[in-house]
Structures are given as structure tokens and as C-alpha cells.
Amino acid sequence: MKKILILLFLVFFQFGYSQTRNLNKEIDSLLLKGRYQLALKKLKSLEPTYTSYAKIANIYYQVDKTKLAIVYYKKSLDLDSVYSTKVQLGKAYQKVKKYDEAISIYKDIVEKDSLNLLLKYQLGKIYLIKRKATLAVETFQELYDLDATNANYSYQKGIGYAMKKQRNKMIGSFLEAYKTDSTHMKSINQLATSFAKLGDKDSTFLFINKGLSLEPNHFSLNKTKINQLYKEEKYDEVLPVLIRLDTVYRNRVSVIDMLGRVYFSMGDFEKSKKEFERSIKIERRNFKTHTYLGHVAMKMENYKQASMSYMMAVVFATEKLDEEYYGLGYVNLKLKKPKKAISMFDKAYKANRDNHKALYQLAKTSDDFYIEKKQVYKYFREYLLYFDEVDKDLTAYAQKRVKEIKKDYFLLGKKIE
Questions:
Q1: Which DSSP symbol is given to 269?
Q2: Is 359 helix (H, G, I), strand (E, B) or coil?
Q3: How confident is the model at residue 390 (pLDDT cuts 50, 70, 90)?
Q4: pLDDT in tens, 110-153
Q5: For 49-65, how does the pLDDT look when each residue is reduced to its tens digit (9 = 90+)?
Q6: Which of 41, 102, 120, 373 has its CA 20 to 30 A from that of 10?
Q7: CA distance 353 to 322
Q8: DSSP 3-state assignment of 165?
């Protein structure tokens, strides 16, 4: 009797195992055909096991239902602490930007398995996202010590040092990445940008030319080259670069605006106007483009259009408006509206206390318009206090007017100060 019961148990066990195995094969077949909804339905009909939960989680992860994937990864791990599923749970948390949870899982894994460089790399990148720069630098240095052939470790370390505002170590890390891999575009771009900020022209063009020999249409490197040539007033050299870039990156506002600025600097105001108008059609609310159109209209002596453009810039502005108010002030001077001009120059200076031209024009226009000179005297004195070394001609005029006004008040027997 006992033998019969054992035999029956084995038969039923084998039958159940065979059924489950067949169902798993069917589910795998459904997944291969992309019929994940039917596969999920069959999986959920099974007795809960680590395998069924893990498969459900993987399906949800693949179809970007990541929050549901997390639920089932956690359920599967409650039944069996499987390494690969822990990794997947960390990736799921990273995908939905739950970085603290991802860090906790990744740290636990790499502490037990220090040779899992893939996870350690992800951990370092999350530290950067969370702006934990010191931890990021330490992590990428450890990775570099384990594998010095991967330029990405040095590059990411450089990003960490940038966050820490350690410029020399940042550049050193990017150079380390470049020495590891002379085709590493991200490092080349960062080096070109860094040396441009430092004013190292030779090093800037060394990395610009290297990068563009690898990727001629690299946007950021071309932008650095354009800015560098523009700063050096090499408009004939910068123009063909911009025209080519405009054909590659059609309707890119920053490229079109730069074309407009170059034509403006070359004195071709018609072409400059055409480019800025093209830019406005793409991005109407870009206040700087309206400002440029105002500058063009001023050069073309179309003061009504200049006034409209500057006003549009003021309406759409998201930053300090000294340039726009200064432009409006200058327009009103040309239109012989000195009181309005004074108001605009005053707004320009209040918007940016470093705008020496705004303060100078505020002082001079007030001097020309008002008989009473006490406020004029204060404006010129303030100019000499803060900007005496900026423009020698303006400074000379301000000094002359301060002396003259002071003398006039003395002769009248009045105090000016």
C-alpha cells in the first residue's frame, strides 16, 4: 500500500511538473512572438514563484511599464535573492529616476562583487546626476585603476572635477581620456571648450581641428570654432563655417542668429536683417533676436522699426534688459525725444550697473536736456568713480563736465556737493 501511494505521488508530481514545464515553454514562445499580454495572463494564472514573478517583471520592464516591473522584481526577490534580479531592480529604479534606491542596490552589489565594473560605472554616473561629485570622482578613479583602457572613466572623472570647480584636475582628466583614446569626442570637445575659456588659442584650435577631422559636423566643436573666430573678428573665415553648419542643422536658431551677427559685423545689414527675420519666424519669443533686429534697424536709420524691435525684446525678455533699454534710449535720441531717451538710459543702467555706456548716455543726455545740473553732476561723478579706466574718451569728457559744472555753481555762489 505504501509503495502504491509513493508511486501515485511520483506520477502526480511528474504530471504537474510536465504541465508547468509545457506552460513555461508556451509562455516563452508567446514572448518570442511579442504576444506579451497573453503571456502575462498565463503567468499570473500560475502558482506564485520566483520564476513567474521575475518573468512578469521582465515583461513589464521591456514594455516600459517600469513601476509595475519594480513591484514584481521586489516580489520575486522576497522569494529568492537572485543576483541578476537585484541588478534588474537597480536598473528599473534608475530608469524611473529613483536614484537613491538605485544607489542603495548598486552599492550593496559592488561591495560584494568589486569586479562588476558595469554596475560600478552606473553607480558613478548616478553620483554625478545627484551632484555627489566627490563620490563620483572616487568611483571613476577606482574604475580607472581597474581598467585604464576605458577613456570614459577619465572623462566622467573630469565631469566630477568640473562640479567640484577644480579646473586643473578637470582638464587633466580630459587629457587622460584623450591619451587613452585619441578619438574620444566628448573629451576632445571638453578640452576645446576648456582651453577656449582659458584663452589658450593654440590649444583650443588643436582640439577643435582634431575633433572636426573626426566629425566635421560636430555642432559643439563648430560652435566653439565660430565663437573663437568671431571674437578675433575673422568674419571671412567664420562665414563659410556658419553657412555649412546652417545646411546641416536647418532651422537651428543659434546658427541663424550668428549668421545675422556676422553679416552685421561685416556691414551687410540687408543680409543681417534677412537672417534675423528668418530666426524670428522659427522662434518668435527669442528676445535677443528682436534686439539684434533693433540694432540692424538703427544702422539702416529705420528708427520706427528699431523702436518696435527693442520693445518686442522688452516684452519677451527673460534676462536683464540693459541692452534693449539702451537701444530704445538711442532710438529716442535719434527721434529727438530726449526725455524718453533719458528714461530708457536710466532703466538700462538700473538693469545692469556694469553698463558704462548706459550711465554715460544718461549723464550726457540729461546734461543736454536739463538746465539744472546737480543730478547731471552726480551721474558724471558716478561714471568717474566706477568706469574711469573703461573708455579714455568718455572719461575725458566726464572729467571736463565735472570741472565745468563745479565752476559754474561756484561762480553762482551755490553748492554742488
A1: H
A2: helix
A3: confident
A4: 999 989 999 999 999 999 999 999 999 999 999 999 999 999 99
A5: 998 899 989 889 998 99
A6: 41
A7: 9
A8: coil
- Using alpha carbons only, what angle is made at residue 412 by residues 365 and 388, rounded to the nearest 5 degrees? 40
391 vs 24: CA distance, rounded Å: 82
What is the Cα–Cα distance from 391 to 357, expressed in whole angstroms? 9
DSSP-based three-state secondary structure for 111: helix
Reference 286, options 265, 250, 257; nearest CA is 257
Helical segments of 199-218, H only: 201-214
- Say which DSSP state 107 is in: H
Nearest to 402 by CA among 345, 364, 356: 364
* Closest among 105, 101, 158, 150 to 128, alpha carbons compared: 158
How far is CA 279 from each of CA 46, 294, 295, 315, rounded to the nearest angstrom?
Answer: 60, 14, 15, 17
CA–CA–CA angle 230, 233, 237 (5° rounding): 70
Is the pTM value of this prediction over 0.85? no
Measured between alpha carbons, how far is residue 258 from residues 115, 165, 223, 252, 264 in Å? 49, 30, 10, 10, 10
The burial class, CB within 10 Å (0-12 / 13-18 / 19+), for 159 is buried
- Side-chain half-sphere exposure of 378, counting CA atoms within 13 A: 5
Close Cβ partners of 148 (under 8 Å, ≥ 6 residues apart)? 180
CA 242 centroid distance within chain: 21
Residue 353 pLDDT class (50, 70, 90 cuts): confident
Q: Is residue 293 a contact partner of residue 309, using CB atoms and an 8 Å limit?
A: yes
Contact by Cβ (8 Å): 242, 266: no
Q: What does the chain come to in residues?
A: 417
CB burial string 91-110: b at 16+ within 10 A, e below:
bbbbeeebbebbbebbeebb
- How far is residue 197 CA from its own chain's centroid? 16
Task: Map grid coordinates 545646411 to a residue.
Answer: 247
